[in-house]
Amino acid sequence: MDGVEELLRSGPVLSEGSVFERLRRTDGVAFDAEVGIGALVADPVGRAALADVHRSYLGIGRERGLPVLLQTDTWRAHPDRIARSAHAGRDLNGLNAELLAALRREAPDAAILIGGLVGPLGDGYGAGTAPDAATAERGMRAQAEALAAGGVDLLVAATLPAADEALGIGRALAATGLPYVIGVVARPDGTLLDGTRIDDLVAAIDHGTAQAPVGYALTCVHPSVAAAAIAAGPGGERVIACFANASALSPEELDGRAELDAGEPGPFAAQLDALRLPVSGGCCGTDERHLAALADRLTARRA
Questions:
Q1: Spans of the chain below 50 pLDDT
Q2: Structural domains of the chain in order of their starting residue, each with its CATH number
């Protein structure tokens, strides 16, 4: 799609709500122990379930005339995990990209971006498990290349807890030549979970990769946390997106939590829209209600 970087920088672009949270409570849908939701696309029932959720989010944006960012369900589809899964040897990244491409073909009148999603090689809530930059670059290269070959418009790294890992992943994404966004988990004081300040992260990746990212995202945090992190110090001006949790609980409180903690859609949408970022969407705990409330606000912003 032409004009990807311009659209990401100007907005407003509506991303999706949680796909994982909705499907893990759906009867008949089972996630792979290694790849998680990323393997559903290889099964007819799972593929249909994925398509239904993405289609519902896409419909919310289309009804309001908003550009929509769809993201592949490949947060855990790293080559080493695929090799340990029941789907060893399958191109799960390409299959997930094709699923979203098929949904885009159903809506030729809409402005739809397809983002190839990657996650941390370690634990998104655990900076202590994050690899160094060189290891992260090597570990992410094959997945980045597979998503690029699948025809995505951009690459999105989400829930990265540590700056060194983010730098390595940034280098792997940059090597594809596609636009990309680096998304991190931040605290209200403007630091990542490993203690790195956002401005230091931005400086390291902007100047330490062959191609700087279009921008940065705050991911898997409540809008109130994102607002505080952006305001805490320099570097916030490079944040272009927030994929927000419905819950205001901290990473430590959310880690391993079995029960869904979903805040009310109205206040969630108001706080997220107040960030005035070009790209906005949901993460853990969000569903169609949260996304519809957000879309209404983005539509009003455009008017």
A1: 257
A2: 4-302 (3.20.20.330)
